[in-house]
Amino acid sequence: MNDLPHGLWEHLHPEERPLARRLADLAGRARNRGEWTLTPFLDPGERSVAELVARSLGAGVRFYGGHPAAERARGLFVPSEALPWVADDPETFDLGLVDVRWSPAFGAPGHRDLLGAVLGLGFARERLGDIRLGPGRAEIVTTAALVPAIAIGLERAGRIGVRARPGDWQDRLPAAAPEREVRTISVASLRLDAVLAGALRLSREQARRLVESGAVRVNHRPERAPDRPLQAGDRLSVRGFGRVEVVERLGANRSGRERLVVARLGGRR
């Protein structure tokens, strides 16, 4: 195990420290032995932890998840001097692709259906990258070793029968802009629970419980304090509800409530 500086432990949220320990071992092997070591798939917050670990231990790290805008990506720790030679391609990051098809006449599975079906095969979330959907098909990014097992085992997603096979990196779904709902809300204050309630159309109590349960991240970091103040530019991710961005603060209205422009991406509407 490679020890991280005490100051870094102080900077990390307690929920991030177990991951940091795992990543420190991988980064240390890259720095000390010259090995190229791959992480599991990481979300943006976890990638921030990996970058902190790499800087602290003097290693280089690069991320790739199958396409430039991937939400989930694997990290590759390398000796810092080797970083310019890392290629962003599936082979370097040991990625595989599963192509999933279905008949639109019988409906279509959603992201949650596909994710649940793959997790139901016994595979951990950290072994799965992005799931992208298109008309009558989807693609699942995973590790190269996992592709045959998913292709054989995935027969149903939700109530929809599906056919899965190893995918072709040259036959990808076209990139699509994420769905984005922008609207103006008025809230009692800039507290996290107040803004969440307004952006997600929840009661203040429901928003508070979400935060305290650990379902909310602010700027990719875990946050359990409902009274945390927010500002324009802050990005929230809420388990089961997608992401919210505080786009602009418009000031108070005549009744003293704060008016905000918020954008919501993904999740339930």
Automatic annotation (TrEMBL):
Residues 190-252 form the RNA-binding S4 domain. Pfam families: S4 (PF01479), YlmH_RBD (PF17774). This is RNA-binding S4 domain-containing protein. InterPro entries: Nucleotide-bd_a/b_plait_sf, RqcP2_RBD, S4_RNA-bd, S4_RNA-bd_sf. Keywords: RNA-binding. SMART domains: S4. CDD domains: S4. The keyword Metal-binding does not apply. It comes from the Bacteria. GO terms for molecular function: RNA binding. The keyword Cytoplasm does not apply.
